[in-house]
Specification:
about 230 residues; 5-stranded mixed β-sheet; 4 helices; 2 domains; 5-stranded antiparallel β-sheet
Protein backbone atom coordinates (compact mmCIF):
# COMPACT_ATOMS: atom_id res chain seq x y z
CA UNK A 1 0.00 0.00 0.00
CA UNK A 2 1.30 3.46 -0.92
CA UNK A 3 2.15 6.04 1.72
CA UNK A 4 -0.58 8.59 2.39
CA UNK A 5 -3.28 6.18 1.26
CA UNK A 6 -6.20 4.90 3.31
CA UNK A 7 -7.68 1.43 3.19
CA UNK A 8 -11.26 0.69 4.19
CA UNK A 9 -11.83 -2.68 5.81
CA UNK A 10 -15.33 -3.94 6.65
CA UNK A 11 -14.78 -5.87 9.87
CA UNK A 12 -16.91 -8.83 10.89
CA UNK A 13 -15.34 -9.02 14.34
CA UNK A 14 -14.90 -6.23 16.88
CA UNK A 15 -11.39 -7.50 17.63
CA UNK A 16 -8.57 -6.36 15.32
CA UNK A 17 -5.38 -8.52 15.40
CA UNK A 18 -2.25 -6.71 16.55
CA UNK A 19 -0.19 -7.80 13.52
CA UNK A 20 -2.29 -5.50 11.33
CA UNK A 21 -1.08 -2.50 13.32
CA UNK A 22 2.49 -3.82 13.30
CA UNK A 23 2.40 -4.03 9.50
CA UNK A 24 1.80 -0.28 9.10
CA UNK A 25 3.85 0.99 12.05
CA UNK A 26 5.89 4.08 11.17
CA UNK A 27 4.29 4.41 7.73
CA UNK A 28 1.92 7.15 6.54
CA UNK A 29 -0.84 4.65 5.91
CA UNK A 30 -4.32 4.85 7.41
CA UNK A 31 -6.57 1.85 7.84
CA UNK A 32 -10.28 2.39 8.46
CA UNK A 33 -12.14 -0.32 10.32
CA UNK A 34 -15.88 -0.26 9.61
CA UNK A 35 -17.45 -1.91 12.64
CA UNK A 36 -21.03 -1.43 11.45
CA UNK A 37 -23.85 0.51 13.10
CA UNK A 38 -22.16 3.81 12.16
CA UNK A 39 -18.95 3.01 14.07
CA UNK A 40 -15.72 3.63 12.14
CA UNK A 41 -12.19 3.48 13.59
CA UNK A 42 -9.15 4.93 11.78
CA UNK A 43 -5.50 4.27 12.63
CA UNK A 44 -2.47 5.85 10.93
CA UNK A 45 0.79 3.93 11.05
CA UNK A 46 2.80 6.97 12.13
CA UNK A 47 0.80 7.22 15.36
CA UNK A 48 1.75 3.71 16.48
CA UNK A 49 4.20 3.79 19.39
CA UNK A 50 3.86 0.28 20.81
CA UNK A 51 6.82 -2.06 20.27
CA UNK A 52 4.37 -4.79 19.42
CA UNK A 53 0.67 -4.05 19.21
CA UNK A 54 -1.78 -6.38 20.82
CA UNK A 55 -5.22 -7.39 19.67
CA UNK A 56 -7.67 -4.52 20.10
CA UNK A 57 -11.37 -4.85 20.80
CA UNK A 58 -12.91 -1.82 19.09
CA UNK A 59 -16.41 -2.47 20.46
CA UNK A 60 -18.23 0.71 21.49
CA UNK A 61 -21.24 0.74 23.76
CA UNK A 62 -23.39 3.86 23.40
CA UNK A 63 -26.01 4.99 25.86
CA UNK A 64 -24.12 3.50 28.79
CA UNK A 65 -24.91 4.64 32.34
CA UNK A 66 -21.49 4.23 33.93
CA UNK A 67 -20.91 7.91 34.74
CA UNK A 68 -23.03 9.31 37.61
CA UNK A 69 -25.74 11.67 36.39
CA UNK A 70 -24.92 14.44 38.88
CA UNK A 71 -21.31 14.58 37.64
CA UNK A 72 -22.52 14.88 34.05
CA UNK A 73 -25.00 17.62 34.95
CA UNK A 74 -22.23 19.67 36.58
CA UNK A 75 -20.61 19.93 33.15
CA UNK A 76 -23.48 19.76 30.69
CA UNK A 77 -26.22 21.75 32.40
CA UNK A 78 -29.19 21.46 30.04
CA UNK A 79 -27.09 20.43 27.02
CA UNK A 80 -27.72 17.06 25.39
CA UNK A 81 -25.18 14.35 26.21
CA UNK A 82 -24.54 10.69 25.50
CA UNK A 83 -22.29 8.24 27.30
CA UNK A 84 -20.01 5.84 25.46
CA UNK A 85 -17.93 3.01 26.86
CA UNK A 86 -15.04 1.33 25.03
CA UNK A 87 -14.64 -2.42 25.45
CA UNK A 88 -10.84 -2.56 25.33
CA UNK A 89 -9.08 -2.02 28.65
CA UNK A 90 -5.86 0.02 28.72
CA UNK A 91 -3.64 1.97 26.32
CA UNK A 92 -3.99 1.36 22.58
CA UNK A 93 -0.33 1.98 21.81
CA UNK A 94 -1.44 4.31 19.02
CA UNK A 95 -3.99 7.02 18.28
CA UNK A 96 -7.33 5.72 17.05
CA UNK A 97 -9.92 8.09 15.61
CA UNK A 98 -13.51 7.14 16.26
CA UNK A 99 -16.21 8.40 13.89
CA UNK A 100 -19.79 7.90 15.01
CA UNK A 101 -23.22 9.27 14.19
CA UNK A 102 -25.05 11.74 16.42
CA UNK A 103 -27.96 12.40 14.06
CA UNK A 104 -28.40 14.89 11.21
CA UNK A 105 -30.49 17.07 13.52
CA UNK A 106 -27.26 17.92 15.35
CA UNK A 107 -25.36 19.01 12.21
CA UNK A 108 -23.47 22.24 12.79
CA UNK A 109 -23.35 21.86 16.55
CA UNK A 110 -20.08 21.40 18.43
CA UNK A 111 -19.66 18.07 20.19
CA UNK A 112 -17.18 17.89 23.08
CA UNK A 113 -15.58 14.71 24.39
CA UNK A 114 -15.02 14.27 28.13
CA UNK A 115 -13.09 11.50 29.87
CA UNK A 116 -14.45 10.22 33.17
CA UNK A 117 -11.64 10.08 35.71
CA UNK A 118 -12.78 7.56 38.30
CA UNK A 119 -10.07 8.48 40.81
CA UNK A 120 -11.18 12.13 40.96
CA UNK A 121 -14.81 11.41 40.05
CA UNK A 122 -14.74 14.24 37.54
CA UNK A 123 -15.09 14.75 33.79
CA UNK A 124 -11.98 15.95 31.96
CA UNK A 125 -12.22 17.69 28.60
CA UNK A 126 -10.38 15.86 25.80
CA UNK A 127 -11.28 17.50 22.49
CA UNK A 128 -14.13 18.90 20.42
CA UNK A 129 -15.36 18.52 16.84
CA UNK A 130 -18.08 20.08 14.71
CA UNK A 131 -20.89 17.69 13.78
CA UNK A 132 -20.84 17.16 10.01
CA UNK A 133 -23.85 17.56 7.71
CA UNK A 134 -24.46 13.81 7.78
CA UNK A 135 -24.54 13.89 11.61
CA UNK A 136 -21.14 12.27 12.18
CA UNK A 137 -18.41 13.43 14.53
CA UNK A 138 -14.81 12.26 15.02
CA UNK A 139 -12.68 12.02 18.17
CA UNK A 140 -9.12 10.81 18.78
CA UNK A 141 -8.48 8.21 21.50
CA UNK A 142 -5.25 6.84 22.94
CA UNK A 143 -6.74 4.71 25.70
CA UNK A 144 -10.06 3.27 26.74
CA UNK A 145 -12.39 4.35 29.48
CA UNK A 146 -15.87 5.73 29.96
CA UNK A 147 -16.57 8.93 28.07
CA UNK A 148 -19.32 11.50 27.71
CA UNK A 149 -20.11 13.36 24.48
CA UNK A 150 -21.76 16.73 25.08
CA UNK A 151 -23.50 18.60 22.28
CA UNK A 152 -23.19 22.31 22.93
CA UNK A 153 -26.29 24.49 22.96
CA UNK A 154 -24.92 26.84 20.29
CA UNK A 155 -24.38 26.05 16.63
CA UNK A 156 -21.65 27.36 14.41
CA UNK A 157 -22.48 30.50 12.46
CA UNK A 158 -23.76 30.25 8.89
CA UNK A 159 -25.73 27.02 9.20
CA UNK A 160 -29.20 28.64 9.26
CA UNK A 161 -29.77 27.44 12.80
CA UNK A 162 -32.04 29.32 15.16
CA UNK A 163 -30.14 31.61 17.45
CA UNK A 164 -29.86 30.46 21.06
CA UNK A 165 -31.74 32.42 23.69
CA UNK A 166 -29.72 35.37 24.88
CA UNK A 167 -28.54 35.45 28.45
CA UNK A 168 -30.41 37.82 30.76
CA UNK A 169 -28.71 41.19 30.83
CA UNK A 170 -27.44 42.46 34.16
CA UNK A 171 -27.21 46.21 33.94
CA UNK A 172 -25.56 46.61 30.52
CA UNK A 173 -26.29 45.84 26.90
CA UNK A 174 -24.76 42.55 25.77
CA UNK A 175 -22.83 43.81 22.76
CA UNK A 176 -25.91 44.73 20.77
CA UNK A 177 -25.24 48.46 20.46
CA UNK A 178 -27.85 49.36 23.06
CA UNK A 179 -27.24 52.03 25.67
CA UNK A 180 -25.65 50.92 28.88
CA UNK A 181 -27.45 51.20 32.20
CA UNK A 182 -24.96 51.98 34.96
CA UNK A 183 -27.48 52.09 37.81
CA UNK A 184 -26.62 55.77 38.60
CA UNK A 185 -29.57 58.16 39.21
CA UNK A 186 -30.65 60.28 36.26
CA UNK A 187 -29.99 64.03 36.15
CA UNK A 188 -32.81 66.46 37.12
CA UNK A 189 -33.11 67.44 33.46
CA UNK A 190 -33.56 63.82 32.43
CA UNK A 191 -36.10 63.26 35.20
CA UNK A 192 -38.11 66.29 34.11
CA UNK A 193 -37.93 65.13 30.51
CA UNK A 194 -39.61 61.91 31.49
CA UNK A 195 -42.31 63.55 33.70
CA UNK A 196 -45.89 63.58 32.29
CA UNK A 197 -47.06 67.06 31.14
CA UNK A 198 -50.10 67.17 33.41
CA UNK A 199 -47.96 66.76 36.54
CA UNK A 200 -45.84 69.70 35.43
CA UNK A 201 -49.02 71.74 34.83
CA UNK A 202 -50.29 71.01 38.35
CA UNK A 203 -46.94 71.96 39.84
CA UNK A 204 -46.87 75.23 37.89
CA UNK A 205 -50.44 76.13 38.93
CA UNK A 206 -49.63 75.38 42.56
CA UNK A 207 -46.55 77.55 42.35
CA UNK A 208 -48.52 80.41 40.77
CA UNK A 209 -51.22 80.18 43.44
CA UNK A 210 -48.61 80.22 46.16
CA UNK A 211 -46.98 83.29 44.65
CA UNK A 212 -50.37 85.08 44.57
CA UNK A 213 -51.02 84.33 48.24
CA UNK A 214 -47.61 85.65 49.22
CA UNK A 215 -48.10 88.82 47.16
CA UNK A 216 -51.51 89.46 48.73
CA UNK A 217 -50.11 88.95 52.21
CA UNK A 218 -47.31 91.40 51.56
CA UNK A 219 -49.80 93.98 50.18
CA UNK A 220 -52.03 93.61 53.23
CA UNK A 221 -49.11 93.98 55.61
CA UNK A 222 -47.94 97.11 53.80
CA UNK A 223 -51.42 98.66 54.06
CA UNK A 224 -51.62 98.02 57.80
CA UNK A 225 -48.23 99.64 58.31
CA UNK A 226 -49.33 102.75 56.40
CA UNK A 227 -52.52 103.02 58.43
CA UNK A 228 -50.55 102.70 61.63
CA UNK A 229 -48.25 105.55 60.65
CA UNK A 230 -51.19 107.81 60.06
Amino acid sequence: MEAGKAAQKPWNSAVVPGDIFDSIKGRDITINFDMGNGILWSVNGKSITADKAGDIDFSVKTGANTVPVDIINNVTGESYSIQISLAFDGEFGFTAVLSTGLGKENAGYTASLYYYNESTEALEFICADKVAEDGTVSFAFTHTSDYVIVIDAEQEEGNNAAEPAQAEETGSAAGNGGAESSGAPESPEAERAGTPWWILAVVLLAAAAGAGVIAAARKKGKGEDENGKR
